[in-house]
Design goal:
The protein has 254 residues and is of the alpha+beta class. The chain has 7 helices and 13 strands. The two termini are 31 Å apart.
């Protein structure tokens, strides 16, 4: 069984340990073949634990120092402090984590939504965000940057990891209307698709929100939907009528 992890990094975060993990190198099988780190999936929980332990090891932290939250597509952020119980943190309903504490790897799970890793290396502050369309529209990126600045960050850099690209993200008119009600200028993130339905540019929207905050931001350019050998994708699983789907993990640590 393949055990070599594939970890994507980005030069914008040079000097900070980070990784956007693909599905390669995990212990799961079947629909979840590879590195499925989703406790909310129907995969064997013991296998998910093995996968997460491999991620922690790659990040240079013990398995119990891989910090996650119970993601709910919200704008809510958890700030980790020294002595926090990470098992308790994992039950909190939120979609981002920030910290200035070394020895903790902040992690988020995705399967088309944007995983965003942020850092101010000099200030020693990091963040990790699960930013789907709803969380991004409701302000999870702004809330994360604000929480990092409260910890002393001022030169924040951010990278959006593998996410669904515009060419694969067909949406309905009501979806587009939710954005245009917020700001008519958001029409620039939509284009006409082959079926005459809008195609939404999720990473473009994320980059726009980050750059409006004076954050130096880039997207890695990988589409989760279009590369089944490397990435899990919720939307692809729906189109294939599969019973479930795996979750990718992205992590950052001081």
């Amino acid at each position: 069984m393949q055990t070599t992890l594939e970890i994507l990094t980005h030069p914008l975060l040079t000097g900070v340990r980070h990784g956007f993990f693909t599905r390669k190198g995990g212990a799961s099988s079947g629909l979840f073949t590879g590195l499925n780190c989703g406790r909310g999936s129907s995969d064997q929980q013991a296998i998910v634990t093995v996968n997460r332990a491999r991620v922690a090891d790659a990040m240079g932290v013990p398995a119990d120092r891989l910090a996650t939250v119970h993601q709910v597509h919200s704008p809510d952020v958890v700030t980790l402090k020294a002595g926090d119980d990470l098992a308790e943190i994992a039950t909190r309903r939120a979609d981002a984590l920030v910290t200035s504490q070394p020895g903790i790897a902040l992690a988020v799970l995705t399967a088309d939504c944007q995983p965003v890793l942020l850092a101010d290396r000099k200030a020693g502050v990091i963040g990790a965000v699960h930013a789907g369309w709803k969380g991004a529209l409701d302000g999870v990126l702004e809330a994360t940057v604000e929480a990092m600045r409260r910890l002393g960050a001022h030169d924040i850099r951010a990278v959006i990891g593998p996410t669904i690209s515009q060419r694969a993200y067909e949406v309905g008119e009501d979806f587009m209307d939710a954005f245009l009600i917020e700001d008519p200028a958001y029409v620039r993130f939509f284009a006409g698709g082959p079926q005459g339905r809008p195609l939404f540019d999720l990473p473009g929207f994320g980059l726009s929100r980050l750059r409006a905050l004076d954050v130096d931001a880039e997207w890695c350019g990988h589409c989760t939907y279009s590369d089944p050998g490397r990435f899990f994708s919720y939307r692809r699983s729906i189109h294939l009528a599969e019973a479930d789907y795996g979750r990718l993990i992205s992590a950052i640590a001081l």
